[in-house]
Specification:
The complex is a heterodimer.
Chain A lengths: L9 E3 L9 E3 L5 H27 L6 H11 L4 H25 L6 H39 L2 H7 L4 H39 L4 H9 L4 H9 L1 H17 L4 H35 L1
Antiparallel strand pairs in A: 1-2
Chain B lengths: L5 H11 L6 E10 L2 E11 L4 E6 L5 H8 L7 E6 L2 E2 L5 H8 L2 E4 L11 H12 L5 H14 L15 H13 L5 E5 L7 H18 L2 E5 L3 H7 L2 E6 L2 E6 L1 H6 L3 H9 L1
Parallel strand pairs in B: 3-8, 3-9, 6-7, 7-8
Antiparallel strand pairs in B: 1-2, 1-4, 4-5, 9-10
Helix pairs in contact in B: 1-7, 4-5, 4-6, 5-6
The chains are: A mainly alpha, B alpha/beta.
């Protein structure tokens, strides 16, 4: 932060103003400035979302760019998501075996692994991994385009950047998150079985039968499709932070960091709300 | 690139300089925070006419161009393009007007993930979807030949010099055959020969397509070569507007000082 000379106006940085530095009069209390910026950030995000929504539902539709983003966000995130899901399955298997054995409920181990992964661990791990990989990628890419005037060049070429850059990326995130979650779920369950069977041999068929006994679509579908909301959050925040960037290389760095931090934070907060809603409507 | 009789072209356009202005800027004000950049700028550009906007760094020349194409919104004033005020238009409405405009950015602003060829093809892919791939390829090569970049089709923007990037940016700006051309420092960073070639290209666009242009430049020599009129900005205001000869004979102290140091 730096003083702005004789005017006495002070630059204030916050995660909610990663791009343009906001000015706060020195006489105003710091708390008031921070609260003001917090609400200003949400207001700007709302306006941005409205512009993207309006661009997304009006022609021309950017199908070529959408397919490119589906590949970029979906296919290229798959190895990382699968690995994270697999590691989670192994850890869950080891931890659950230890706990359930202590309480004499070892026979519940397959169900504990499957339910835990399908209902919560798979979706949230996918959300966080994608917000790390995709959030940083989108944030940095769009921020670089912004500071090098490439977004202005798109706009000057009579192309709506909200439609071409933001709507396609956000839609790709929304569409790919549930599929990536299914991949994480599958790898988690598979590696949970591998970890279980290395300690105490059990056929995959028996593990699945035991694990999914009593489970229904209400356990799988709402938890999987809630990640579409995570996709919306990740895509929206990353595009927003990227497209409002100012300040050269430092601005690009701030945009990438804030995209990851804010999208991860809002994914976790949204999960709290969504879990409660799913319990109300599907239990 | 062929050489053009520059004086003849400018005289021809001076004769054609009639009719309603293609670009009509009226009482334009723009500030960023507490910094006032433009204070009541009014300018007109007619079909086939080139207006060079000169001035010291930071006087709002580039901001003026960004306002004319709608990348910035003015605090007050109007910007008429073909008689329609573009201030306050929605992005898609503005898009229809921008299809008739070409903009060359100061640092070219090429898409860094696309090749030279793809950069120039970009407007066609979005606005000339009926064009076949071969037609598009031919048109792209034609445009790149016009700016002397036909041998660098497959190169990435990072692999070519700043001057070459500017030529590609100019080819991209010309892609949709605009009738308005806005050029931000088109010759800055170019060698004298390339600079003269760009000047010739602008003159040939005036001659063949009667394009209305605003050229922001520090290069007085190039300005007096390509422009019919010059406008000198200082502290957000137009100090003088007229021919180079009118600037030379002006008794305004700032004008004389600017000419002396250019």
């Amino acid at each position: 932060m730096s003083n702005r000379g004789s005017s006495g106006v002070v630059d204030v940085d916050s995660p909610f103003s990663p791009g343009p530095r906001r000015m706060a009069p020195p006489s105003s209390p710091v708390a008031t400035g921070a609260v003001g910026r917090f609400f200003e950030w949400f207001g700007d995000l709302g306006i941005f979302f409205w512009r993207v929504l309006r661009a997304a539902v009006t022609p021309p539709f950017e199908f070529t760019e959408l397919f490119r983003q589906l590949d970029e966000i979906g296919s290229k995130s798959l190895p990382l998501v699968a690995l994270a899901g697999a590691a989670t399955g192994v850890v869950l298997s080891l931890q659950a075996r230890f706990s359930l054995t202590r309480f004499g409920a070892k026979s519940l181990l397959p169900a504990a692994i499957v339910f835990s992964i399908v209902r919560e661990t798979g979706p949230i791990i996918t959300g966080l991994v994608v917000s790390g990989r995709v959030g940083a990628g989108i944030g940095a890419e769009l921020a670089t385009m912004k500071v090098t005037e490439q977004i202005d060049a798109i706009e000057a070429s009579a192309i709506n950047p909200y439609r071409l850059l933001a709507a396609t990326r956000i839609l790709a995130c929304i569409l790919m998150l549930p599929f990536l979650t299914l991949a994480a779920d599958f790898c988690g369950v598979l590696m949970g079985w591998v970890a279980q069977t290395l300690v105490e041999p059990l056929s995959f068929h028996e593990f699945i039968n035991s694990g999914f006994k009593g489970a229904g679509f209400n356990d799988l579908l709402p938890s999987t499709f809630k990640t579409a909301v995570f996709g919306l959050i990740i895509g929206l925040i990353a595009c927003f932070q990227g497209m409002r960037t100012r300040g050269g290389a430092a601005g690009v760095g701030r945009a990438a960091t804030s995209s990851v931090v804010l999208s991860s934070l809002f994914v976790i907060l949204a999960d709290v709300v969504l879990v409660k809603l799913i319990m109300i409507f599907f239990s | 690139m062929h050489t053009i009789d520059r004086v003849a072209v400018r005289q021809e356009h001076a004769r054609n300089d009639t009719g309603a202005p293609v670009i009509a800027v009226e009482g334009l004000y723009k500030s960023f925070g507490s910094q006032n950049v433009l204070h009541g700028i009014s300018l007109n550009v007619r079909r086939g006419e080139t207006l060079a906007v000169l001035g010291r760094s930071g006087t709002g020349k580039s901001v003026l161009l960004r306002l004319v194409i709608g990348l910035e919104k003015p605090d007050a004033g109007s910007i008429g393009i073909h008689g329609q005020n573009i201030v306050g238009l929605a992005l898609d409405q503005l898009g229809e007007i921008r299809k008739k405009m070409g903009f060359l950015f100061q640092h070219a602003a090429l898409y860094d993930s696309l090749t030279v060829e793809q950069n120039v093809a970009f407007p066609f892919q979005h606005h000339r979807k009926q064009m076949s791939a071969s037609e598009r390829g031919d048109r792209v090569r034609e445009l790149l030949t016009e700016v002397g970049m036909e041998t660098d089709l497959k190169k990435m923007p990072s692999d070519i010099s700043g001057g070459m990037q500017k030529r590609v940016g100019l080819a991209r700006a010309l892609a949709l055959e605009p009738d308005i051309l806005l050029l931000d420092e088109p010759t800055a960073g170019l060698d004298p020969i390339s600079s003269a070639e760009i000047g010739d290209l602008i003159l040939s666009l005036q001659a063949e397509h009667h394009v209305a242009s605003i050229v922001v430049t520090h290069d007085l020599h190039s300005a007096k070569t390509i422009a019919n009129r010059l406008a000198l900005l200082n502290e957000g205001k137009v100090v003088i507007e007229g021919s180079f000869e009118e600037l030379q004979t002006s008794d305004i102290e700032f004008v004389q000082e600017f000419l002396k140091h250019s």
